[in-house]
Write a structure and sequence with these properties.
27% of the residues lie in helices and 31% in strands. With 201 residues, the chain is an alpha/beta fold.
């Protein structure tokens, strides 16, 4: 089963529709047993870091996610869902995340427009199953004001250049963090979702 975790802060239906476009069915759920036992769990998110952590805690979802992570089962965080998988964020003050990956999110301090909103080229840092089917130029759609710092470069698969190096996908064991929105990133985004699903189902 492909599960899209509903904790009140995600574009769950956009993601569900994108998964359906590539020929797979998914279920939107916040049931803890289903979270633990699903083949793939997508953790989407749009909004503020603290609110996401509070929603996960208030809905008793952190324990289920931890059990899944400790069992080495796939979790895919998208945008805000990616951010909460890391150690912390400075959005509206310091707030700790789930701590699945090393790294901290800090506000852009650049001349370019912030939030970082729009299409950016994806640059391959490290080839993996996630980059299968890529051609020379691949663009993804971003919407965020905070970006990942202090991460392990060996886990960096894709990044974009937005005056600073913006990690696009981080991969560690059966944990994937995607900063951009694959469900809004046309053929490239759908290909990445397809690569993930084919690898784990």
């Amino acid at each position: 089963m492909i599960l899209i975790l509903d904790y009140g802060l995600g574009n769950v239906y956009n993601l569900k529709n994108a998964i359906k476009k590539i020929g797979y069915e998914s279920k939107i759920s916040s049931d803890t047993d289903e979270i633990i036992n699903a083949d793939i769990v997508f953790l989407p998110g749009v909004g503020a870091f603290k609110a996401a952590m509070e929603n996960l805690k208030n809905n008793n979802l952190i324990d289920a996610l931890n059990k899944r992570k400790n069992a080495n089962k796939l979790i895919v965080g998208i945008c805000l869902g990616m951010q909460v998988m890391f150690e912390a964020s400075y959005e509206d003050g310091y707030c700790e995340g789930l701590g699945y990956f090393k790294g901290v999110f800090k506000e852009f301090d650049i001349k370019l427009k912030s939030p970082h909103m729009g299409w950016n080229e994806l640059i391959v840092n490290k080839k993996s199953f996630l980059t299968k089917g890529f051609n020379k130029e691949n663009y993804a759609y971003y919407v965020h004001s905070y970006y990942l710092t202090e991460y392990n470069n060996e886990n960096l698969i894709l990044y974009s250049d937005y005056e600073v190096k913006v990690p696009g996908i981080i991969l560690k064991d059966n944990l994937i963090g995607i900063q951009f929105h694959p469900e809004k990133s046309s053929k490239v985004g759908l290909k990445i979702l397809e690569n993930i699903i084919k690898e784990f189902i």
